[in-house]
Specification:
Homohexamer. The protein is an alpha/beta fold. The chain has helices at residues 14-26, 46-56, 72-78, 91-107, 127-135, 146-155; strands at residues 2-7, 29-35, 63-68, 83-87, 112-116.
């Protein structure tokens, strides 16, 4: 079964990697969909985020990384899948993600969302927190893949 795991990934974190690696064990193909979100001001441009995700996942064989803009339901149709994987860390995430899943299902009735909680080691981690540490010149190396840490150091 082919699934899509979508996010902004600005930047991809070790928490994302954990969820992607777990999904790759469960499904025959995992499409990592890197979103161009017009409501956000990303630290990295879309092409660089796609590249960083690809470099972070070279050890997985059943992964495809794509950049996209527009509706996730359209990307799912384009890739002929009806399953989305979404990560949830807290009760705040659960409420938001349930609303998003219901909206997606309303727009595309065959589209289903599976929720994947993070492992305990990464439950607290988000890209927003990584960016905040980075903006204050903190060390994020323990939270992101090596290629992402290097890209952040080069941005300084």
């Amino acid at each position: 079964m082919k699934v899509i795991y979508a996010g902004t990934f600005d930047p991809i974190t070790n928490g994302h990697l954990d969820q992607i690696e777990r999904a790759a064990k469960l499904f025959s193909k995992v499409i990592i969909a890197v979103a161009k979100n017009p409501t956000k001001r990303p630290l990295f441009e879309l092409a660089q985020r796609v590249e960083l995700v690809q470099q972070s996942l070279v050890h997985l064989q059943n992964i495809e990384v794509v950049g996209f803009s527009g509706l996730l339901i359209d990307l799912a149709k384009e890739h002929q899948t009806n399953v989305l994987i979404r990560g949830i860390r807290s009760s705040d995430d659960v409420e938001y993600e349930i609303q998003l899943a219901q909206l997606n299902e309303k727009l595309s009735p065959t589209l289903q969302t599976l929720f994947l909680p993070p492992s305990v080691n990464w439950r607290y981690l988000s890209s927003t927190q990584v960016r905040e540490i980075y903006y204050h010149q903190g060390d994020v190396s323990q939270f992101v893949p090596t290629v992402v840490n290097q890209a952040l150091l080069e941005k300084c």
